[in-house]
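Posting for a labmate who doesn't have an account.
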Amino acid sequence: VTGIVFFAAAVLQSVRLWRWVGVHAWREPFVLILHIGYAFVPLGFLLGAIAIFEPSSFIGTEPLHAWTTGAIGLMTLAIMTRATRGHAKRSLNASRTTLVIFGSVIAAALLRVGAGLVPAIHGTLVELAGTAWMAAFGLFVVEYGPMLFGARLERAD
């Protein structure tokens, strides 16, 4: 029953995401990244359903990492970057560094989920995922630390 519920949740959350028409958000990185982050929710449910129906196919932590590293991590950073820029009265356009931050978290999530799918290189993928994760948050500190602790500017846009 749990596998069926997980599969149904994956389908329903995918439909929800599809109805948001995220393809139109590609010009606005702060909106697009929320859609990409949310895509890890149905992915987690799908991986959970597969793990239940075919337990030997995964290590078993893939759904958890899709939800935490992918959905929570990516959406949290998206809100942190956008809110910081707004409160610091900076331009509301995503900088190149911000795009690298987002890409690093996506890479970390995919590598961490993938680590359970490829047991032969599990350790290497986990280390790469951790490195990408640390790079993302390190870059956040470098890019957004001065905005959080510095003087507010007059909005540039």
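Reply:
Got it, the structure tokens are right above this. Residues 2-149 form one domain.
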